[in-house]
């Protein structure tokens, strides 16, 4: 069923966490703080600042507490962190974090390879996090990865994704982001996924997270808009590669999504010029080219 396009879309900026976590070189706390502050100043209302995980597993996320302490928190902006277990949640709570995220996989093989447990075991691990979050009045957002395909299992049934999303909502997640981790999804498959998920979950509790590995991310976002979805995850300058496809791009660039939404007359509250400047600044720090096509074109004509 085609919905009318939403009038407003909320972009969840994942660059500071999902975008930076796979970088090989060390990134200073000051540079991370500058990135978050630049994104806040550009008008992003939801920013995933970091992750409270063992630095042994994700070295780039060491210092997340220091980043939270130093950023200029603006009223009305959600500054969240990934907390995969109770220890991480407690560290986030101590750092003053007001919103956390947990993640599950839609495929058994990916769950085993990624976090060494089954899907049902991963959901059980969230139970103490959800209970602690409820006790401290902390909002929890859920992620599901590999919703449109798995590097090990191949196709993933939309009904399987919907079932996991229902469990996350029942556990207390206010919103569940459905992620095409390897970027194999197409517009038709995306529409079918959201149409099936929305049979049991209100569309306003569903979000999309698309990778551009096959160049389909913007098409999939448009398909999601047609299904009434109005929240999308994206990463400034397209930061964050896809570890399952050598040399492939990962997260869709926030600048590219914003250009699409601006062209559709959809309000986001985000300033494109400031967003491009934020992306350029972090790319200079990382000494890498900007992964946003819009940013590159914008700067070429400047």
Whole-number total of structural domains: 1
CATH superfamily: Aldolase class I
CATH class: Alpha Beta
Mean of all residue-level pLDDT scores: 94
**What is the end-to-end distance?**
42 Å
Catalogue the unreliable spans.
none
Q: Report the C-alpha radius of gyration, rounded.
A: 18 Å
Number of beta strands: 8
Series of secondary-structure elements, N-terminal to C-terminal: EHHEHEHEHHEHEHEHEHHH
Helix content: 40-55%
Number of helix segments? 12
Structural class: alpha/beta
Could you tell me the CATH topology label.
TIM Barrel
Strand arrangement within the widest β-sheet reads: 1-2-3-4-5-6-7-8
Helices and strands in order, then pairings?
Blueprint: E1 10-13, H1 15-19, H2 29-41, E2 46-51, H3 64-70, E3 78-82, H4 86-94, E4 99-105, H5 108-115, H6 119-135, E5 139-145, H7 158-171, E6 175-180, H8 187-197, E7 206-210, H9 217-226, E8 231-234, H10 254-263, H11 272-286, H12 293-301
Parallel strand pairs: 1-2, 1-8, 2-3, 3-4, 4-5, 5-6, 6-7, 7-8
Helix pairs in contact: 2-3, 2-11, 6-7, 7-8, 8-9
Domain Pyruvate carboxyltransferase: 9-276
Pfam family, one: HMGL-like
GO molecular function: hydroxymethylglutaryl-CoA lyase activity; metal ion binding
